[in-house]
Specification:
Elements: E1 2-3, E2 6-7, H1 17-41, H2 63-74, H3 79-86, H4 90-98, H5 105-116, H6 118-121
Antiparallel strand pairs: 1-2
Helix pairs in contact: 2-5
Length: 145
């Protein structure tokens, strides 16, 4: 489905067309709110980085960028779009989300999010849970003996 030039994916589990339109409307409002927010800040990328003939110039992320990255996460902006916007590796985003870089940025972003989007603040989960992928439970091997 598309809305105002944006293509929004709707899960296959949607039961009715009305439910699909409600999802489309909800996602479009969040996307529109984020684009308005980024336009006011002057950070909105209007073209794809692959279309840019100029060489990719990377720069280190700042605390202001980290706050914007948190707000974008809560507004459900795709990680791919964040990578294009900040022209960085995905590891830099995870460093922000895990609190390795700019650990105070999450609290500052939460305050800014509540001020800018008061109607979304009550239904937004402001956390990030890191799930360890490489730790194996030693007792699990006992199941096969």
């Amino acid at each position: 489905m598309s809305f105002a030039g944006f293509t929004i994916s709707v899960p296959r589990t949607v039961a009715t067309k009305t439910h699909a339109l409600a999802l489309l409307h909800s996602n479009a409002i969040v996307l529109l709110a984020y684009n308005v927010f980024m336009q006011r800040r002057g950070n909105l990328v209007t073209r794809n980085a692959a279309d840019d003939p100029a060489p990719v110039v990377t720069r280190p992320l700042t605390e202001k960028d980290a706050i914007d990255i948190w707000i974008a996460r809560w507004l459900r902006v795709r990680q791919k779009d964040l990578l294009v916007r900040y022209r960085c590796d995905s590891r830099r985003l995870y460093e922000v989300w895990w609190g390795e870089r700019f650990p105070a940025s999450r609290d500052k972003a939460m305050q800014q999010f509540r001020a800018v989007h008061p109607n979304l603040a009550d239904r937004t989960v402001f956390g990030y849970r890191r799930i360890p992928r490489n730790s194996l439970n030693q007792h699990q091997a006992d199941l096969f003996e």
